[in-house]
Amino acid sequence: MLYMLQQFSDQIPIFNLFQYITFRTGGAIITALAFVFLFGPALIKSLRVRQGRGQPIRDDGPIRHIIEKQGTPTMGGLMILAGITMSTLLWADLSNAYVWIVLLVTVGFGMIGFYDDYLKVSRTSTRGFPGRVKLVLECLIAGIACFFLIQVGEAPFSTSLAFPFFKDLVVDMGWFFIAFGAFVMVGTGNAVNLTDGLDGLAIVPVMIATASFGLIVYLAGNAVFSDYLQLHFIKGLGEVSIFCGALLGAGLGFLWFNAPPAMIFMGDTGSLSLGGALGAIAVAAKHEIVLAIIGGLFVLETVSVIVQVVSFKLTGKRVFKMAPLHHHFEQKGWAEPTVVVRFWIISVVLALIGLATLKLR
Asked: Would you list the domain boundaries of the chain?
């Protein structure tokens, strides 16, 4: 919305700032952060009253969680979603299709997560939305988003998979790209959901990945920088940086309330929407493989669950003391802050490795 002010830069020179993506990204960060700070306490108070006993805690989880986390409200993802949406609409160029597509996935996944959280709280049970129905809806939203990404992009690159480390290695997947892209979005959404199990554990790696992809989409959407780094130029993609800034700001605001001991949990409302957003950004930027590197922590958490389930069904034995992986280390005696901070460090290292692929081509 504010982007339109640059049209009046001839009369008011300072309005010329609004044409720069970097300036508007900074504005989006500050706006989303301020929004969550201002309205977060009122939302937490309202959710605490409405939810009563708060988010149901797994009976088979660490005993400490049942004692310490009982009564903490969930659906904190609402403040993140509101901050992202408001800030993006305020600072982004609303004629840009990439912004709307990423926002569609984020809000769509958030609505699914919200209904799942609502069922859990209203039933006072850890069982919410039926898993298959949930996946079908996620695939539907992601599939629609991928279809529009193909329409917005330039053929045949819009249906292609690009490989990092190689300048010209791309594989045209044709219309199968819709299924592939949807898998990335749905997989990332659920991977972040699995990671969200400790205070502050999921939101910081999400912000690290978002900051990394904010840089990637800015470079890939800039003809000069993409040519220098030998990236595939995607016209209009740079505007997604404003969305990344809004997510980063809203995430920082949420972390203020989610830092140990958490005043609120993001719930599926937050984890599904944030994971879906990361997946959508990666697919739009043609950096799906890089997402697996930068978001490697989410991959590890997901793989730990898969390995645990497969091992138990085939042999009757568990590989980990408990899955996902962060609970395994808790059961080994690691304090919650220790697990969280060390996982943050892993996220930073993986992000640096992922960003290194921008030059190693």
From this structure: 22-285
